[in-house]
Amino acid sequence: MASQKVTPADMVSVESNSTSYLYFVNQKGFISSLKSSSTDGVEAESAGFYKKESVNVTKKDSDDNEITVPVKTHADLKQIAAVAYKDPQNRYQVRLYYAEEGTLRIRELCRTDGGKWYEGALGRTTSYKLPAGSSISANVQGAQLKVFACSDDDVNEEGNQELSCFYAQLGSRDWARRRVTNDIKY
């Protein structure tokens, strides 16, 4: 009897500082990353395997102690989105977007110059809930971060979720949302 093959629930890649990063969600919903062993951005058979790392974030527990915990997506929305860019201070930034375990609220993880992951403002200073089974996409345009997704509270007359753009200026913690579709049909 052949064993059942298991694949990632989702994956997305970015390039930062001439290094490729592949972020993936396992079937249990945990996010991990694979970092290219190539330092010049060129793939070759001799380059070796990518290095695996769990995506962890430091939080405060109920006693105000810092603890490091793995990041887990919501069971009903395991899709992730990521962007990488160089900020005005010449630092390499990576942003990772996902639906939070237990709440389906969109969350942002940030990493500067390959350092530790930390929680971003999207999801901490706002509470945008996503519908189960929907999608997330992100990009950087000019000086603005944009995350595209459906907002759970935005349904048109036909019962379809309208698409929204969550946006912030690079370096800002102030996120806003605007609807980008009207009467969409799927």
Topology:
Blueprint: E1 10-16, E2 19-25, E3 31-35, E4 51-54, E5 56-60, E6 66-70, E7 81-86, E8 92-99, E9 106-112, E10 118-119, E11 136-141, E12 144-155, E13 161-169, E14 176-179
Antiparallel strand pairs: 1-2, 2-3, 3-4, 5-6, 7-8, 8-9, 9-10, 11-12, 12-13, 13-14
Structure overview:
It comes from Lophium mytilinum. This is Fucose-specific lectin. By secondary structure, the protein is an all-beta fold. It has a single domain, classed as Neuraminidase. Helix content is 0%, strand content 47%. The strands form four sheets. Strands 1-2-3-4 form a four-stranded antiparallel β-sheet, with no helix packed on it. A four-stranded antiparallel β-sheet has the order 7-8-9-10, with no helix packed on it. β13 and β14 (176-179) form a beta hairpin. It is globular and about 55 Å long. It starts with 9 loop residues before the first strand and ends in a 7-residue tail after the last strand.
